[in-house]
Specification:
Blueprint lengths: L1 H5 L11 H26 L4 H29 L28 H25 L3 H15 L1 H12 L2 H33 L1 H11 L2 H26 L10 H17 L10 H26 L4 H23 L2
Length: 327
């Protein structure tokens, strides 16, 4: 672990011979080609046109690797030394593709751009170390090619991503975001905000004790969050519905449920009962209007209908809790 952090046991870039620099470039191009193909495979079902872009970028990395191998063969023979980026101190690293999945299509494009810029900087430094004219020329050409990622992406985009295809992929990505995060999160926020109203305000008006009320609210919020999270994760694995990872949906639902309940439980940390209660009621109405806004913004529910349903329903539950607490 320490060797990875501090670079113990790694070679410095300045200590590499020209043959080792070529070998490092060959292994790096091979790794980047594999990463681009992994991105393409991950995007192919939902973003087929973007997958073609990364397939083309992987093909270009293969061309770079072939040119480097041919140069190595001419200068140093058939045997290529085994040296990879993790063997060199300070050399940029790549995350395994399984560590960065799943990425949205735009994040994948940004990740690829950073990869190309890093590779471009490497070839610039490598060209400075080359003494052979042919080697210097090839490394310089590769530096220009890698650093020219923006124009490459534009060329590939014009070929594979016309405006209508990009718009369709953007709609698909937005739909996936809503299904995986917004929908379960909204359900959790609604459940946490509304279902905890009655027990919290019933406890408040029955006891008049802010600390006891806070404990009731805390237990109700955390319990509801755990229940909603497990329910969301367990009832649908996402394979047939296309709603995405059950773990992500469960976390979104559970966390938002807990937040929804804690919003009007936390004011009871204020020791003065009237101040705490007025603050909690004000927060309740902010929560309910926020839910209505999210429904309108992401679920395309007409705002007045969403507001009527949520605010009226929440108001009735709040009134029920107050009446029960005063009984």
């Amino acid at each position: 672990m320490l060797s990875r952090v501090f670079g113990f046991g790694r070679r410095s870039f300045d200590s590499l011979s020209e043959q080792e620099i070529l070998a490092l470039a060959i292994s790096s191009e091979e790794d980047d080609g594999r990463i681009y193909r992994a991105y393409a495979d991950g995007l192919r079902d939902d973003f087929p046109q973007s997958a073609k872009v990364f397939d083309a970028m992987a093909d270009e990395e293969d061309e770079h690797r072939a040119a480097l191998i041919e140069l190595h063969r001419k200068r140093f023979g058939e045997r290529i030394p085994l040296i990879r980026r993790e063997h060199v101190r300070g050399y940029y690293e790549r995350k395994p593709d399984w560590l960065v999945k799943p990425l949205g299509v735009e994040k994948v494009r940004l990740q690829a751009e950073e990869m190309e810029l890093q590779a471009g900087r490497f070839y610039v430094e490598a060209a400075k170390r080359a003494t052979d004219a042919a080697t210097r020329k090839l490394l310089g050409d590769l530096a220009a090619a890698e650093s020219n990622h923006v124009s490459l992406a534009q060329r590939l985009g014009e070929k594979h991503l016309p405006d209508d295809a990009r718009e369709e992929e953007d709609r698909t990505e937005r739909r996936q975001f809503i299904l995986t995060y917004v929908q379960p999160g909204l359900a959790g926020l609604m459940d946490g905000s509304v279902s905890t109203l009655a027990p919290i305000f019933a406890a408040a008006f029955a006891t008049g004790d802010t600390w006891q009320t806070f404990l009731v609210g805390l237990s109700a919020s955390v319990g509801a969050g755990i229940s909603m999270g497990f329910t969301e994760a367990a009832h649908d694995d996402g394979k047939l519905s296309g709603r995405g990872s059950p773990v992500k949906r469960g976390l979104a639902s559970g966390i938002m449920t807990t937040i929804g309940g804690l919003g009007h439980a936390l004011p009871y940390l204020i020791p003065h009962f009237t101040t705490a209660t007025v603050t909690a009621i004000a927060i309740v109405f902010v929560e309910l209007w926020a839910i209505a806004y999210i429904q309108n913004r992401f679920m395309e529910t007409p705002f007045m209908r969403a507001a009527f349903q949520v605010v009226l329903g929440g108001g009735l539950v709040l009134a029920a809790g107050i009446l029960i607490g005063n009984a």
